[in-house]
Amino acid sequence: MRVRELQDAAEFLRSAGPLLLPNEARENLIFGIAGSIVADPGRYPEVRFWLVTDGDEPAAAAMRTPPFNLVLARPRDDVALEALADGIDAELPGVVGERRAAEEFARLWAARHGLASRVQRQQGVYALDTVRPVPQPAGAAREAAGDDRPLLLDWSHAFGEEVLEEDDPGRVEAVNMVDHRLGVEDGGFLLWEEGGAPVSAAGWGGATPNGIRIGPVYTPPELRGRGYATALTAELSQRLLDQGRRFCFLFTDLANPTSNAIYERIGYVRIAESAMIAFDPA
Questions:
Q1: What is the pLDDT of residues 37-60, one digit of tens each?
Q2: Is the dihedral of CA 21, 27, 30, 35 positive or negative?
Q3: What is the pTM of this model?
Q4: What share of the chain is helix, strand, coil (3-state, %, to 5)?
Q5: Which of 15, 94, 127, 194 could bridge to 278 as Cys pair (CB 3.0-4.6 Å)?
């Protein structure tokens, strides 16, 4: 097997496509990040892509936007995953991807580099192709605009701290994400307003060939329990389907049964599990 490092996001997606497309929903994260770089090449100061091929066929794929974790696609087999672990010449803070693949890569990487690994977060990967009716709270949805940037930054920071337990790099990425989505056609934010005031927000972006990812979804703590996020996510999902997307995807915290139940009520179905694993000194 051959390991290649690619510099161009479009070339990476073309080359890795046969590995990623059969499981587009499961691989929506790596698809979406690479696609966002194609749409906005200057979004990240550094990007790295790795591809393992067996003959002409892709067998494993991964990418990274330092200082963030390696994003891993599920490989064809463990032999390809071993080749990938051997071929990456970088220091990695962690890895994120389909649970079994991420766990096996973490085991290989930790053994090769004398590190310890720990699971930071386990998430459900959900997909939807039909929206179910949900109760409608007071208010209505509207698309966010540039004037909403300060609010979106505040709420994205709050989401990162509460849900993702992010540090300073995470806060930098929140600014990156908000500015990117306010500036591209295939991304943005929808706000639910009541009485002229925003009460909940849902973002979308990270398009795949046939779908698009929803997130983050955030309601301030004092406004929760009123159905805003449920109605907003259902509204956004339907809008994206109506625009021609065949699927919508999102990630949930498996430790939060409430949010999982909300999304299932809308029509989302869990199709995979994802794990984020950190590397620490042994």
A1: 998 888 889 999 999 999 999 999
A2: positive
A3: 0.92
A4: 40, 30, 30
A5: 94
